[in-house]
Specification:
The protein is α+β, with helices and mostly antiparallel strands and about 180 residues long. The chain is built from five helices and eight strands; from the N terminus they run ββαααβββαβαββ. Helix 1 packs across helix 3 and helix 2 crosses helix 3.
Length: about 180
Amino acid sequence: MGIHGALNWTIRPTGPADAAALAMVAQATFLEAYAGLTSVEDMLAHAERYNSKAGFEAAFAQGAQVWIAEADGTRAPLGFAMLTVPDFEITQPGDIELKRIYVLDRCQGTGLARALFETVLAASKGHARMLLGVNRDNERAQGFYRKNGFAIAGTRTFTVGATTYDDFIYAKVLDPA
């Protein structure tokens, strides 16, 4: 796959040794998404808990599966996708959660998000549904998920530091084969 014609990427599964690279891209994409919407204190608190090296190490310890997209040649992280056991109130047996699919702004619209999404779909074989939470104001992400067969199945609140946001919970029935 390619970005802007000259830059190509590779997607591969990760493990705890990749936690620092995952933290770097997670913090960059989170800043791109929330800058101007929430305070720096809230963003830093969230980053320390979830988007830090320690946060990824904790996620791996709890069984998270993560794939990273890296620039060919430099292995610079461009995005990643994470699957976890869901913790939504609407969770049913056989569900899996697409916890995060983050792609740098410069890579959006290049097919990278789709490639990461197809990777997690393939890894979700045997599960009944895929769930995810998305900020109700993030129209771009919602459009991507709707285009890929997701529908709103519920709502939740999501806290970044001390700020609470309203999220939609989307669900997609997965092919049992």
